[in-house]
Amino acid sequence: MDQAKVAPFHLNQEDGNITKSDGTAATWTDIWKYQVPQKQGIVLQAKDVISMYLEDTGPAEVGADTCYVQIEVRDASEQDKRIVFGPALYARLKEFQDRNLMARLPLGAPVKVYERQWIVIMVKDDGTIDESDSYFDLYTSKVAVPLRS
């Protein structure tokens, strides 16, 4: 991978390539699904950080110690999956201000997410997640040309 072609990338719920859905109580649910556009790639690394705020249909913030989050990378058909974060308590992800306190992806080596593949943020809580009142920030890197294995 040519390091000169790697650029910082900020992914959040407002990205046009995100599919959104509300969560189902007591079930792992895909809340945000990002499909990497053609002619691009994402490189997830251990230095990458993620934060989020989750609200239930109450409306109130979900319980910090009862809600779990995980991030998966899926192939284009969504048949092959790899967990790149979690499952972790939501309480670990609530920091938005201090980058040193934000949750980091626990990766020993970079994970290449190729064009048309998915980065999926999943949530499991005892209540129903209201996606429209929830949000996240993932700071990672993108490549403007297709990645090669």
Keywords:
0% helix; mainly beta; Jelly Rolls; 149 residues
Number of strands: 11
Rg for CA atoms: 15 Å
Judging by the overall fold, what is the CATH architecture? Sandwich
Silhouette: globular
| Unreliable residue runs | none
Strand content: 35-45%
Order of helices and strands: EEEEEEEEEEE
Mean pLDDT: 93
- Secondary-structure content class: mainly beta
Report the CATH C-level class. Mainly Beta
In whole angstroms, how far apart are the ends? Answer: 9 Å
CATH-derived topology: Jelly Rolls
State the helix count.
0
Number of domains: 1
Helicity level: under 10%
Folded structure, characterized:
The chain has 149 residues and is mainly beta. The chain has one domain: Jelly Rolls (Sandwich), CATH 2.60.120.1170. It is built from no helices and 11 strands. Strands 1, 4, 5, 8, 9 and 11 form a 6-stranded antiparallel beta sheet that branches. The protein has a 5-stranded antiparallel beta sheet with strand order 2-3-10-6-7, with no helix packed on it. Strand 6 and strand 7 form a beta hairpin. The protein is globular.
Q: Summarize this, please?
A:
With about 150 residues, this protein is mainly β. It has a single domain, classed as Jelly Rolls, CATH 2.60.120. It has strands at about 5-10, 20, 30-35, 40-45, 50-55, 70-75, 80-90, 105, 110-115, 120-125, 135-145.
Map the helices and strands.
Blueprint: E1 6-12, E2 18-20, E3 29-35, E4 41-44, E5 49-53, E6 68-74, E7 81-89, E8 103-104, E9 111-113, E10 118-124, E11 135-143
Antiparallel strand pairs: 1-11, 2-3, 3-10, 4-9, 4-11, 5-8, 5-11, 6-7, 6-10
